[in-house]
């Protein structure tokens, strides 16, 4: 790196320290071995988790004692039969039959297809509007996210076993970033444990002395001593390292349709291996804010009229400035989730190979 670039970039890299920036490879301050030996990364982890505990304490009164206890023990909340059968059937049927513009990303042999839940989609599927705006749903999301900001919502389809492709990197256990974050899956179809199910290491959201020591060692190895995704701040973990930190083996969630799982993805998680070509269909949501904010709200991007349009704006920015915002997802046009195998393989062959994406999203 040239001296001029270092001088010009230093203010930008420094102001990223009290933010959610996580890439050791892209920010030489965050990736500084000297600073991380002195405790920079560990300090960011400690403070971010302290702020999350404070925000969750304030948000916890809006959910049940049982859900709080489940989350504290495991790092996730699971709700089976979330909706009454009649309501779920109506929602499922509406989603399965409503065409919408979708995009795809290919990672290894797995295709992720997403339809943004935006104002146009919500107008076509009013059952979905009712679901995501119900106080029960919102309070659970906010508690796990430790933030009252509105999540991003998608209809997500996971298609496995694309022919002549490498392994899916999201099947490796990992943490999304250094601080608590939220992802949620509301499954619209049954998923078996061996069909690419969501997997999670129970209790790995907890910041133990062993986890902090591991985090520090990884930060000192960064970026040259890590794999590409770990160097960008999404640490991969081995079975031996899990055992060393005192965590249990990962649990893969074979679930029935109408199951909701909300997880803190600082905890180690992955997409399970599928033993055959499978399709997994879900409402997928994601929330990540600056982890150092002490407040739970004050987010203009969560205002009505803005929150539901953010995905369209994000995709437009990626299309226009891919070098800045990451590779754009490949447009596949109007589609519905219930595509037959021939249609799936045709569109799969067109999907952009995006293994260089900035983070893992099982």
Report on this model:
- The strands form 2 sheets. The protein has an 8-stranded antiparallel β-sheet with strand order 1-8-5-10-4-3-2-11, with helices on both faces. A 3-stranded antiparallel β-sheet has the order 7-6-9, with no helix packed on it.
- The protein has helices at 3-15, 33-37, 40-59, 65-74, 85-97, 119-124, 126-133, 135-145, 209-221, 228-231, 239-244, 310-320, 322-325, 341-350; strands spanning 76-79, 100-107, 110-116, 152-159, 182-187, 198-200, 251-252, 259-264, 269-271, 279-287, 330-335.
- It starts with a helix and ends in a 12-residue tail after the last helix.
- The protein has 14 helices and 11 strands.
- With 362 residues, the protein is an alpha+beta fold.
- It has a single domain (33-350), classed as q2cbj1_9rhob like domain (Jelly Rolls).
List the helices and strands and how they pair.
Blueprint: H1 3-15, H2 33-37, H3 40-59, H4 65-74, E1 76-79, H5 85-97, E2 100-107, E3 110-116, H6 119-124, H7 126-133, H8 135-145, E4 152-159, E5 182-187, E6 198-200, H9 209-221, H10 228-231, H11 239-244, E7 251-252, E8 259-264, E9 269-271, E10 279-287, H12 310-320, H13 322-325, E11 330-335, H14 341-350
Antiparallel strand pairs: 1-8, 2-3, 2-11, 3-4, 4-10, 5-8, 5-10, 6-7, 6-9
Helix pairs in contact: 3-8, 3-9
């Amino acid at each position: 790196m040239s001296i001029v670039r270092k001088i010009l970039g230093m203010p930008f890299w420094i102001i990223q320290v009290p933010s959610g920036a996580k890439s050791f490879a892209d920010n030489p301050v965050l990736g500084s071995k000297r600073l991380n030996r002195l405790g920079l990364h560990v300090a960011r982890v400690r403070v971010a988790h302290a702020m999350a505990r404070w925000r969750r304490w304030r948000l916890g009164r809006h959910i049940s004692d049982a859900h709080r206890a489940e989350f504290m023990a495991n790092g996730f909340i699971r709700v089976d039969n979330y909706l009454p059968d009649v309501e779920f059937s109506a929602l499922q049927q509406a989603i399965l039959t409503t065409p919408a513009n979708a995009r795809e990303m290919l990672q290894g042999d797995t295709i992720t297809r997403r339809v943004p839940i935006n104002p146009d989609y919500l107008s076509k599927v009013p059952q979905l509007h009712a679901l995501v705006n119900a106080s029960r749903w919102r309070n659970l999301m906010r508690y796990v996210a430790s933030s009252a900001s509105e999540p991003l919502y998608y209809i997500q389809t996971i298609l496995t076993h694309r022919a002549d492709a490498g392994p899916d990197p999201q099947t490796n256990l990992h943490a999304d970033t250094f601080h608590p974050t939220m992802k949620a899956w509301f499954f619209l179809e049954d998923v078996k444990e061996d069909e690419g199910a969501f997997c999670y290491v129970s209790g790995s959201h907890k910041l133990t002395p062993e986890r902090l020591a591991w985090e520090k060692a990884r930060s000192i190895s960064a970026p040259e001593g890590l794999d590409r995704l770990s160097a960008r701040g999404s640490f991969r973990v081995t079975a031996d390292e899990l055992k060393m930190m005192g965590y249990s083996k990962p649990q893969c969630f074979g679930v029935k349709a109408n199951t909701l799982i909300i997880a803190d993805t600082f905890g180690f998680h992955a997409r399970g291996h599928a033993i055959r070509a499978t399709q997994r269909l879900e409402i997928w949501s994601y929330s990540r804010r600056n982890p150092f904010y002490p407040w739970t709200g004050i987010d203009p991007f969560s205002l009505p009229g803005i929150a539901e349009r953010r995905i369209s704006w994000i995709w437009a920015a990626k299309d226009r400035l891919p070098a800045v915002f990451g590779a754009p997802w490949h447009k596949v046009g109007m589609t519905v989730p219930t595509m037959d195998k021939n249609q799936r393989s045709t569109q799969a062959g067109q999907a952009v190979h995006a293994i260089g994406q900035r983070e893992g999203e099982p």
